[in-house]
Structure formats: structure tokens, C-alpha cells
Amino acid sequence: MGYIDFNEKKGFISDMDGVIYHGNKILPGVAEFINWLNKEKKEYLFLTNNSNYTTKELQQKLLRMGLEVSEEHFYTSALATAEFLKEQAPGCSVYAIGEAGLLNALYEAGCTMNDVNPDYVVVGEGRTYSLETLTKATNLVLGGAKLIGANSDVSGPLENGIAPACRALIAPIEMATGAKAYFCGKPNPLMMRTGLRMLHCHSAESVIIGDRMDTDIISGLETGVSTVLVLSGLSTEQTLETYAYRPTMVLKGVGDIVNIAEKSKK
Fold this sequence. Notes:
Elements: E1 11-14, E2 21-22, E3 25-26, H1 30-39, E4 43-48, H2 55-64, E5 74-76, H3 77-88, E6 93-97, H4 100-108, E7 112-113, E8 120-123, H5 131-142, E9 146-149, E10 155-158, E11 161-164, H6 166-177, E12 182-183, H7 189-199, E13 206-210, H8 213-223, E14 226-230, H9 237-241, E15 249-251, H10 255-265
Parallel strand pairs: 1-4, 1-13, 4-5, 6-7, 6-8, 8-9, 9-12, 13-14, 14-15
Antiparallel strand pairs: 2-3, 10-11
Helix pairs in contact: 1-10, 3-4, 5-6
């Protein structure tokens, strides 16, 4: 494993689920980590593949847990998806399966909702997912709509287990139609590049912190950003053995970053 001088790094990109919280429970060391980022005047961004929430909702979720972070510090796979569609096909129409986070982002990007002959079928996670919406989406894709997924996560952590995430939810549409979805969230470099642009940081000056090898760590690896795998979420020491690549550092949680930074200052 390598070593990262956290004091030297300017930009910090952090995942949320399994890094900052589990469900509605804040993880140990998180408050200290955010205080440290503010105190050291670091640029930071919470980059989440969860497409359910708007940035305002994420801000309020952290506030309920006692953490004050302003709205510009959040970027979601829903926003990345909307941004992608805005660039590819301005003013396009979509049939979307997802929550407020995804729908709001699509509306704000100038997309219109269309369940008759949309240009795209866009799938995120959420309660609107059902056999009925799945069937509708399948037939719209067969009718020529292109298939887009907000992120390629297969599952996400819950307080008492896991929940199927976007990649698992879109699979039935792919299998039924033979179409292949395009995913806009991590590890798509588009999302990372936008994140770095928002931080006004170069990849060499930045760190990504996450609990997943297949989204967070590979995102950093492929964009030249130092990577920290935290074992506070889905990954364990054993998880590392199943991948051909390694993170720069493995830590128990984000609180360790503060300890390492403080120690190396002395």
C-alpha cells in the first residue's frame, strides 16, 4: 500500500453511503473529518451514486445527523445523468423510473417526461419501480428508446443488509430487450471529471474516499486521483483479494484521515 500526504492534497471527493452514514446513522469520525476539511480550507465534494435525493435533501439529511454542509458540496448520479442527456440531446424526452432527485435533475436540464415515444428510458432507484413500470420501460426500449442507468451499483448498504441498486434493477430490461444500458454515475469518468471541475482541482491534487472497489476506487484509479478505501461500508480486507487493482490506502473510516494528517504535521 502507498502513502498519501493528506495535508498536501487540495481536493477531497467522498462517497456517502457506507462512508459518511449507514441509513440514518452517522459513522464514527465523520464529524471530525468534516471539521478538519473546513479548518484546513480543503475543497470537498460528496459524490454519490444514489440518484434518489436532490442536493437539498442530502444537505438536510446530514443536518438531521448534526452535520452542517452547504448544498454546493454535493453531486449525484442523477445530476450526472441529466448533464449527460443535456449534452447529448438538448430538450430530449424521457420515461423515467426514479425518485425526486432524478426527476428534478432531468426537469432542470430541460428534459420533458414522455411515456408514449420518449427518446430515452432513464432508470434510477426508488419506490416507483414495479412490474408495471418495468413492463412499460421494456416496451418503450423495444420501440426505439435508448436505455440509460443513473449508476452501475448492483447493491447499496442498508442498516440491516443490502438493497438492490440501479444495475440490478435495470438488468431485467436489458435481458428482455437485448439492449445494453449506458451508466452515467461512478465509475464513469464523466462524473469524476465534473467533480474535479467543481472543486477547481487537478487530479494529482485530489483524493477519492469510498467503500467500494468497483465504483469509488476504480473511479480514482482511472482518473489519476489517489484512492482511499474505507472499511466502514460494504468492503472488508477480504474484498481486496478479489480485485486485480489496489487502492492507494486502506483505512477503517474517514476519522483515520484526520489522525494521519495531524500526526504527519508534527
